[in-house]
Amino acid sequence: MLTTATHAEALARFGHALSDPTRSRIMLALREAPAYPADLAATLGVSRTNLSNHLACLRGCGLVVAMPEGRRTRYELADPRLAHALDDLVRLVLVTDPAACPDAATRGCC
């Protein structure tokens, strides 16, 4: 398969979404089942405002969708294949050299 700019852009969006631990936790939670923001905030132990900002990012990346249900909005993964991709990523074992990026936590690299 030929790699195109579109493929690279899609991977960059996915990588950006998963580069934040809260967004990663949201994606993993939605992998299990759709959820309402208040429930997600409580489960993840974050404020609703913080969660809302992360959900907006994930929507902008095209990874989650908002489904209006009366006065509430339910969030779910935009495509069921994302759950499979997340499963595959979780199963990977990566060997990294912590010395290669000692300030990863503060710079967001590695």
TrEMBL record:
Say which domain of life the source belongs to: Bacteria
- Looking at the Swiss-Prot or TrEMBL record, what is one Pfam family this protein matches? HTH_5
What GO terms describe the biological role, i.e. biological process, of this protein?
A: response to cadmium ion; response to lead ion
Annotated GO molecular function terms are:
cadmium ion sensor activity; DNA binding; DNA-binding transcription factor activity; lead ion binding
Please list the residue ranges annotated as the HTH arsR-type domain. Answer: 3-97
Q: Which NCBIfam families match?
A: HTH_metalloreg
Please state what the protein is called: ArsR family transcriptional regulator
